[in-house]
UniProtKB/TrEMBL annotation:
<feature type="transmembrane region" description="Helical">
    <location>
        <begin position="338"/>
        <end position="359"/>
    </location>
</feature>
<keyword id="KW-1133">Transmembrane helix</keyword>
<feature type="transmembrane region" description="Helical">
    <location>
        <begin position="380"/>
        <end position="399"/>
    </location>
</feature>
<feature type="transmembrane region" description="Helical">
    <location>
        <begin position="93"/>
        <end position="113"/>
    </location>
</feature>
<feature type="transmembrane region" description="Helical">
    <location>
        <begin position="426"/>
        <end position="445"/>
    </location>
</feature>
<dbReference type="InterPro" id="IPR012429">
    <property type="entry name" value="HGSNAT_cat"/>
</dbReference>
<feature type="transmembrane region" description="Helical">
    <location>
        <begin position="133"/>
        <end position="151"/>
    </location>
</feature>
<dbReference type="Pfam" id="PF07786">
    <property type="entry name" value="HGSNAT_cat"/>
</dbReference>
<keyword id="KW-0812">Transmembrane</keyword>
<feature type="transmembrane region" description="Helical">
    <location>
        <begin position="56"/>
        <end position="73"/>
    </location>
</feature>
<feature type="transmembrane region" description="Helical">
    <location>
        <begin position="309"/>
        <end position="326"/>
    </location>
</feature>
<keyword id="KW-0472">Membrane</keyword>
<protein>
    <recommendedName>
        <fullName>Heparan-alpha-glucosaminide N-acetyltransferase catalytic domain-containing protein</fullName>
    </recommendedName>
</protein>
<feature type="transmembrane region" description="Helical">
    <location>
        <begin position="171"/>
        <end position="190"/>
    </location>
</feature>
<feature type="domain" description="Heparan-alpha-glucosaminide N-acetyltransferase catalytic">
    <location>
        <begin position="55"/>
        <end position="145"/>
    </location>
</feature>
């Protein structure tokens, strides 16, 4: 055995002897029964002491990484179009943000509900948090997890598919979401439709998009947009969808620019990238995250966890690549296509597994403390940095001209002028004045044990 393999085996610390495995299973079974008895006793009597649960460092680091990516693409995507959202088919760095968050929510749901035995209390907890998050997809996947709580096993049976059969009802919920999305996307008839463009020009102009087809997955006549137009109305959509960066719409592609004179009518149309049908598809991303959380709960050995995590990640990637390169179902964030779900969830699973190896298996936690700090105070960093609340407050104080503010002065004189480049200066400003700054703030707040939670 070479040194690397020996180190991996020692780091994973997996018992290989069958007798040891049998003893461990017996101990786990006894421990589970004891925990179940204690839980029943706790249900009968009020809890006097609130027990602290151990945080999962890998999950915090992954959450922090996702926040960092979000800040980077939001603040620097304008000067680096290649990392901004793909205009239509394809996947860029920005397109990983939402599915990564959904994956994180799924893992967190599995961990948060593993010791909750009262459905009424669990439903109340989920409803309150969901109302705060205002995201319908989280509500559905969380309720699927909660209403099947009585069916959760304390121990798993033998077999490679035991983790799937044990949570078959959760997977059934995800499969129903898959069927609804696929059937609606490829069978719903999309008629011609029209809209009034209020954004361009001095006078509103009416455009008509010719459709009359089924199964179209281009910008003009897809079922995702049609469902949203019927439910919400076209006037409630995002008026500058990212598809305006397509070559058919602008000569500035893949960046943002004025629309071509010969641009198709749909280039002027609004579109909602997080609509009703795409939210149903997004449930699958959360379901996959919940599965990773279930593996984390039931399997205690590092290798026992990594095997299903890595294998599922690669399987999802392979499926997505096949769907993409056969032109069956292209990877598309705007439609939240099934190939996009598989591709991004597969990448999320592999990144999560990689962080788990580095942090939990090899013990390299110090290099990732920066991400952990951000992950533990993710809501604060999201609101203040990603949503630009703090920057808006700082730049709200200016002299004579809005550009004469502290934030604009730092960006121009400390970064852009020094490097004599708008692109490089903007990137460095985001890295140091946004990401690094808030990472340090999150670290200080962590030392003070101050966290912003929902």
């Amino acid at each position: 055995m070479d040194e690397g393999a020996k180190r991996m085996e020692e780091g994973l610390n997996i018992p290989l002897d069958d007798e040891v495995l049998e003893k461990q299973e017996t101990i786990n079974s006894v421990d589970s029964n004891i925990e179940h008895k204690i839980a029943e006793h706790d249900d009968e009597q009020p809890a006097l002491v609130k027990q602290k649960t151990k945080r999962v460092a890998t999950l915090d680091a992954f959450r922090g990484l996702t926040i960092v990516i979000m800040i980077l693409v939001d603040k620097a995507g304008g000067v680096y179009p290649r990392i901004d959202h793909a205009p239509w088919d394809g996947c860029t760095l920005a397109d990983f943000v939402m599915p990564f968050f959904l994956f994180i929510v799924g893992v967190a749901i599995a961990l948060a509900l593993k010791k909750i035995h009262k459905i009424k209390y669990a439903v109340k907890k989920i409803m309150l948090r969901t109302l705060k998050l205002l995201f319908w997809g989280i509500l559905l996947q969380a309720l699927i997890e909660t209403f099947t709580t009585k069916l959760r096993p304390t121990t798993l049976s033998h077999g490679r598919l035991a983790i799937f059969t044990a949570y078959k009802w959760q997977w059934f919920g995800g499969f129903v979401a898959f069927l609804i999305y696929m059937i609606t996307t490829f069978t719903l008839y999309v008629p011609d439709w029209s809209f009034v463009d209020h954004a361009n020009g001095d006078e509103p102009k009416r455009y008509t998009v010719i459709c009359g087809m089924r199964g179209h997955i281009g910008p003009a006549c897809n079922a995702v947009g049609y469902v949203d137009r019927q439910v919400w109305g076209v006037n409630h959509f995002y008026s500058h969808p990212v598809w305006r960066h397509l070559k058919e719409c602008t000569f500035s592609s893949p960046g943002e620019g004025p629309l071509r004179e010969d641009a198709p009518s749909w280039c002027h149309a609004p579109f909602e990238p997080e609509g009703l049908l795409s939210s149903i598809s997004a449930i699958i991303s959360g379901t996959i995250g919940i599965h990773y959380g279930h593996v984390l709960i039931h399997f205690k050995g590092h290798l026992d966890r990594l095997k299903p995590w890595v294998s599922m990640g690669f399987l999802l990637l392979i499926l997505a690549i096949i769907l993409q390169f056969t032109d069956a179902i292209p990877i598309n964030k705007q439609l939240y296509s099934i190939s996009y779900v598989c591709f991004t969830a597969g990448v999320a699973g592999l990144v999560f597994s990689g962080l788990y190896i580095l942090i939990d298996v090899w013990g390299l936690r110090t290099p990732f403390l920066f991400l952990e700090w951000i992950g533990m105070n993710s809501m604060l960093v999201f609101v203040m940095a990603a949503e630009g609340i703090f920057a808006a407050f700082v730049n709200g104080w200016y002299y004579e001209n809005p550009n004469n503010s502290l934030g604009h002065w730092i960006k121009k004189h400390v970064f852009v002028n020094v490097w004599n480049s708008e692109r490089v200066g903007t990137l460095l400003y985001v890295i140091f004045a946004e990401i690094t700054f808030w990472g340090v703030v999150a670290g200080v707040l962590h030392k003070l044990k101050i966290y912003w939670k929902l």
